[in-house]
Amino acid sequence: VALTVTNAILDGDRVGLRAAEGRISALGPGVEPEPGDETLDAAGMALVPALLNGHTHAAMTLFRGYGDDMPLMEWLERRIWPVESRLEDDDVYWGTRLACLEMVRGGTTRLWDMYWHPEATARAVADAGLTAVIGAPLIDRGTDDGPHGLRVSAVDTLKTLESADGAVKPALAPHAIYTVSEESLRWVAERAAEHDVPVHIHLSETRQEVEDCVREHGTRPAAYLDRVGLLGPRTLLAHGVWLDEAELELIGERGATVVTNPVANQKLAVGGTFPYPRARDRGVAVGLGTDGAGSNNSLDLLADAKFFALAQKHAAADPAIVTAAETLEIATGARAPMLGGAGPLEKDGLADFALVRAHAAELTPGDLTANLVYSGTGAVVDTTVARGRVLMRGGIVEGAEEVCARATERARRLGIV
Ligand SMILES: [Zn+2]
């Protein structure tokens, strides 16, 4: 069934929007519902593109608040890894449903995920009505079954997710260059090309990773990734905190995408900031991610957009280095086409959008874009629509209570709460 939104504010005008079969079929003043349409009166609300979360581990909502304020390795070894070894499908399913609920509340409709039990993630995303590119973390160092186990997991993910609901697509997600052998990275590059699927990897998150890479491979992370055949237009690099000029040049040439995660970087105190202005100068595609709720702890991308802008201004000692409009574009995926964001609101575009309460205190008065980035959070979102389907209306997501209860149950089972 088609959806028609009336009385929404867009760039100061009162407009209507009609969505049919997941796309915007009409947008502008005078667009009215057709007989049989679902209708939504958006009086007092502004229409904005939906956000895209370019890097997360959705089911890690179960770990929210579990081991905050700990050094990274200690947190992983003492808290995360012991529990992850006991994860079941239903843990990942309900953890992901909780993540989707939080993202819908904040106007996010699309995500790139890397986590265990990807088939459970896929089911949860489809049930929640979102769109995702999903990969199992591929690791062969320090594991019992080494490269063989990595291959089994990769082939399994491709097989399961290539036939999944249309809203879910597979990726190959080698965890990082320090957890995957060179042999397996080369194997992943070949499989990604063969299946024409994207590659999602953490890169250059810590200074230690760069130093180890130089010592072990004689070159920095991006050049190493290029050498093993993994740096291309279908590659998503999460973090990129320590990329130098030559690496950014190479990433720009290869057409890879960097997804920056400013909140996770600051919470884990990596000590640096993704060099966005230099990346932009070299034409690097850039998106924004929350990372997992274990290290953020929120999945409110609008809140993180402010962190991104502030981190960049602060690092450059220049408040003009990035604008609110540019920041919002990055948060919607508009500056990284490979991520598959919905794009600007226009006829024939994907019908992924949000309605924000234009008269909310934090959006009053002043420019909407500036207020959304510097003053707003996900709390200003009233309605979220993904592929023409209303996922939240009037701040209410159907089934939210059950999702929170079931996720808490799973966290309890795991001994987290
Ligand atoms: Zn991550």
Model description:
By secondary structure, this protein is an alpha/beta fold. The chain has 14 helices and 18 strands. The longest helix is centred in the first third of the chain and has 17 residues. Strands 3-2-1-4 form a four-stranded mixed β-sheet, with no helix packed on it. A four-stranded antiparallel β-sheet has the order 5-16-17-18, with no helix packed on it. A four-stranded parallel β-sheet has the order 6-7-8-10. It starts with a strand and ends with a helix. The radius of gyration is 21 Å and the shape is globular. A hairpin with a 2-residue loop joins strand 1 and strand 2. The mean pLDDT is 96. The site of zinc ion has 6 residues, from loops.
Unreliable stretches, pLDDT < 50, 5 or more residues? Answer: none
Distance N terminus to C terminus? 42 Å
Question: Which ligands accompany this protein?
Answer: zinc ion
Number of helices: 14
Portion in beta strands: 15-25%
Instruction: Give the proportion of residues in helices.
Output: 25-40%
Strand order of the largest sheet: 3-2-1-4
Query: How much is the radius of gyration in Å?
Result: 21 Å
Derived structural class: alpha/beta
- Strand segment tally: 18
| Global outline | globular
- Major beta-sheet overview: 4 strands, mixed
Average pLDDT works out at 96
